[in-house]
Amino acid sequence: MPEPRTRKLTATSYVVLGMLSYSPATSYDLKQWVANTIGNFWAFAHSQLYDEPARLVADGYVAEEVEEGGRRRRTYSILPAGREALREWLSAPTVDQTEVRDLGLLKLFFLNFGTRKDLLQLARDRHESHRLRADAYEDQRAEIVDYADRWQVKTIELGIRYERCVEQFWSDFLKELEEEDQT
Fold first, then answer.
1. Residue 6 above 80 pLDDT?
2. Which residue in 49, 60, 69, 73 has a CA-CA distance of 20 to 30 Å to 105?
3. d(Cα 6, Cα 175) in Å, to the nearest integer?
4. CA distance readout (Å), 98 to 41, 45, 94, 95
5. How far apart are CA 39 and CA 152, in angstroms?
6. Which residues contact 1 (CB under 8 A, 6 or more apart)?
7. What is the pLDDT of residue 3?
8. Total-model pTM
9. Total Cβ atoms within 10 A of residue 25
10. Closest CA to 82 of 6, 28, 21, 12
């Protein structure tokens, strides 16, 4: 077995290692699992899930098994070096600032160049969007609570709290705008 290379692993590397810690998978499997779990709070191009396993194989963190016939699917499984890399990453301090990439906030920042109608529509759209997302997270939590591990459930719970908090922001902002319109 080759010694792992010293390439700096990325967040996508750790997503792949973490998912493979549950079970061997094809790149398509990884894409599906991520879409239904981590994709709720960590956005990245799904093409990365097709490229990263091969890099991790070359680095000695993941093994690859190629199907003999048919589509010659590649199934990846984590190696001990991959588990160790994942454990090291999990034990490292997490002090990075949280990134918020919210198109609604970006538009709000520049709305002095828009119209009052644009502002009201943005506030309504964002309020509804966050309400629907929080509702969907609550439904998802109800579906997984009996079989998912405690920490997976906690990620959904934070998602619910976040969406409800942002929903409340837009609700309060709408009320403020409506009160201004009445004066």
1. no
2. 49
3. 54
4. 11, 19, 10, 9
5. 13
6. 60, 79
7. 56
8. 0.79
9. 21
10. 21
